[in-house]
Amino acid sequence: MSKIIGIDLGTTNSCVSVMEGGTPKVIYSSEGRNVVPSIVDPIKGIVGDVAKRQAIVNPRNTIFSIKRLMGRKFDDPSVQFDLRWLPYTVKAGVNGMAVVEVEGKDFTPQEISAVVLSKIKRDAEAYLGGAVTQAVITVPAYFDDSQRQATKQAGEIAGFEVKRIINEPTAAALAYGLDKSHSHTIAVYDLGGGTFDISILELGEGVFEVKSTAGDTHLGGDDFDQRVIDFLVEEFKKSQNMDISHDRQALQRIRDAAERAKIELSSSMEAEINIPYITADQTGPKHLVTKLSRSKLEQLTDDLIEKSFAACTTALKDAGIDAGGVGEVVLVGGMTRMPKVQERVKSFFGKEPHKGVNPDEVVAVGAAIQGGVLGGEVKDVLLLDVTPLSLGIETMGGVDTVLIARNTTIPTSKSEVFSTAADSQTSVEINVLQGERPMAADNKSLGRFILDGIVPAPRGVPQIEVLFDIDANGILHVSAKDKATSKEQKITITGSTGLSKDEVARMQKEAEAHASEDKSRKELVEARNIADNMCYAAEKALRDGGDKVPADVKAEVESRVKELRDSQAGADAALLKQKTDALSAVMQKIGQAMYGSGQDQQTGPQGPQGGPQGSSGGGVPPEGSSPQGGDVKEGEVVEE
Amino acid sequence: MDGIQTAGSQTPENNELEELKKQVDDLTNSWKRAVADYKNLEKRVEREREDFARFSNLLLTTRLLSVLDNLLLASQHVKDQGLDIVVSELKNIISEQGVREMEVKVEDDFDPSFHECVELVSGPGDKKVVEVVAPGYIMGERVIRPAKVKVSKI
After folding, report:
1. Distance from the B107 Cα atom to the nearest Cα atom in chain A, whole angstroms
2. The model scores a pTM over 0.80
3. Angle A339-349/A294-319 helices, nearest 10 degrees?
4. pLDDT digits (tens, 9 = 90+) for A104-147
5. In B, which residues are within 8 Å of A382 by CB distance?
6. Where would you tag: which of A12, A19, A599, A630 has the fewest CB atoms within 10 A of its CB?
7. Distance from CA of residue A488 to its chain's centroid?
8. Is the peptide bond before A42 cis (omega within 30 degrees of 0)?
9. How many A-B residue pairs are in contact by the CB < 8 A criterion?
10. What is the rounded CA–CA span in Å between residue A177 and residue A171?
11. Does B117 sit within 8 Å of A277, measured CB to CB?
12. Coil, strand or helix: which one is B150?
């Protein structure tokens, strides 16, 4: 069965999405863009970006904003308003409906929109590799029956079976999964390229009902761009005393730069605008070089933003609620990327708006989800559990080394090879941990076991493979195996994923709250481990070097080692690092001395190294972590 | 009626067997589908990674095109051999990315598939390219940037 695609048939741009493997995916156009300009030349049969490029050459043949005429009578006041600025011919057709006339031929808005939809169909077929015949198409919430019928016809002309016409705000709410939320009143704030819509929806029994809509059919990103353009032209006039407001080519470059600057100011506080050789006079070429700050942009467009909230107030009043009665807010349209817009939406409704989904795509995504539901695909998706919290083991210094990160889909397994922390260590303890905090002591211990019988060897040599395996029922199996002897120990933990929601939320919250303090604690432990490792390496080097190491070098190294060891417990991470670096520097002298004393060096037989170390309670350092090892400090490992 | 079983082949054991067979079938099916999904995902990730590498290069190259435009403008104003060398070096880097400049000549017919009209000027001819304001670029079959042209009208 072919897939049902979701189409956002917009005034300025259109977008298409489809469900794949249970998630919505936006289909890119053959031009490689996520949206297609809703622009058509019906005579040449060209559409999208290509039609846009010829708008200046064929203004009377290049039909854009056709959605403004869709399903409307010619004498509709809104049509009468629009035909004053639309460069193509609009007239009354059959039944007094608005149609466009191009080169003596009449085209209904349905036929024009069908050209856009046909292109979308071709792009979707190219992507999906098969025929696409079914679609869900979105319309503004305020569209009346005639406008909805016209949209459906447009789909049919393009060769679609239109499975459903849904409201744009409803689609946006679906994209955020709000149909499953507990909140009942949803505000959808849609500030697009040329139009602004605010819709208040009410959710009951999984069905969205439109309580009210308001908006401004001529307010959008283009107005914001125009403000920046005017500002730049004015700036240029001030600095160069030249008026470029009639120089089409200069304006074109300013327009591009203005839009780029506007977008840049959504993520940075200041944008540089450089347009070299914008024009020239007798004195030579002129350049436009200026800066635009975010606050200046906000100042330039303040009244435009405020205008949208006047409509929001109307919509709330019509719905019979106040801003506090709105449970969820959804942002749609590219302009909602502007931080000031988000800020004002937040302060107006008193809550953080949803904004994770790309605001240019969110309506199409919601339509695809609706299509998935209608096609049975969404229902069909096997819902797999995820581990709500990270799972790991305790390693040297009381650190929680994570093997399976939170949000990993189960069933899953992961293994990692660890080693001993001390010379001649004959057993390791595996402490299985759950939680997001970096230190073992702060996380929940799910269980522990000891693998013994490890053949005595220098630290870092034994290879102990630790395997975590969560089966489909959420049961965690942990095993540890000494690769040399194949000796194995294991533990099975039930209920590792069966935490209550509250418990998970609490643990995540705690992790967030302690994030910075935990980070510094972990850094300190790491610094200690590195310092310890360096001491170990230095002592080994001195032993191996024996008499070849000059006495003064030996004395210096020994004193540095002592200094480092003494400060290990008390010093902070930065000081430890400094002392470690100092030791590392003097250690090079050992190397130089050895190198200088000839090539006949043989590492002496390994004598007894260090004192007998406790073999249990030591964490195991991950193998390959650099630098490796560190000794076991019995008192340091937290036993609970 | 509780506990009364109808005679014939519908014994509880048979029922259970049928049930289990069906379950095995279902599970085998979903398992195969899951594995297939995974294989397909692997392929797609691979493809997307390649696309991504190409695409991110393309993004950077596209940004460089406007720098090239400005350098070309500069070289029109400043006749300097050094500048010309810089321009040709940048052009080389761009063409190494598989991006080539479109051939657009004055008096070519205006073709919106490759050209973007930035201004209409009077004659000569109708809908002919009068001046190339900024060159266009193609990668493979795809227009990365249309040539910006002035077009004639009668």
Report:
1. 15
2. no
3. 30
4. 999 999 999 999 999 999 999 988 878 999 999 999 999 998 99
5. 30, 34
6. A599
7. 41
8. no
9. 52
10. 10
11. no
12. strand
